[in-house]
Structures are given as structure tokens and as C-alpha cells.
Amino acid sequence: xxxxHVHTCLSPCAELDMHPAALxxxxxxxxxxxxxxxxxxxxxxxxxxxxxxxxAGLAVIPGMEITSAEEVHILGLLPD
Length: 80
Fold this sequence. Notes:
The chain is an alpha/beta fold and 80 residues long. It has one domain. It has helices at residues 20-29, 46-56, and strands spanning 2-6, 34-37, 59-67, 73-77. α1 (20-29) packs across α2. The mean pLDDT is 94.
């Protein structure tokens, strides 16, 4: 199972304790095989989530939730 829209603590809508290791733990706990990390206007935590996920066997899709001037939110999934 894949969740194509998860946030780390870098997104203003996320909990502050949702650091990369906590995100990986939560994903594994609910049985996910893969997650797309899509923080708001940032891909800064993708690498940290990928490193934390490696040992857990969780695949990580790099992404970003881009917010336009009109407050439209667009998910961009990025190549490895």
C-alpha cells in the first residue's frame, strides 16, 4: 500500500514531532510499503526520510506540495 501525500515537521500543517524517523515508524506501523514525502514548498527532508526508511524497507518517493499564489496546492512527484 502507498500513501502519495505525507508531510514531515517542515510543513506548517504537520505535527512538530513528525520528524523523519517518526514518519517512517508511523508508515510501517500502518502497513505501508511506500510513501511520497510532499512537504509544502520544500524537499529538504526527503533525504533524511530516505535514510531512515532504508533499514525499515520502506520505499520513499521524493515529492513536494507546491502552493500557487492563488492558494492552489499541486503535488509534484520527483525522480529519484
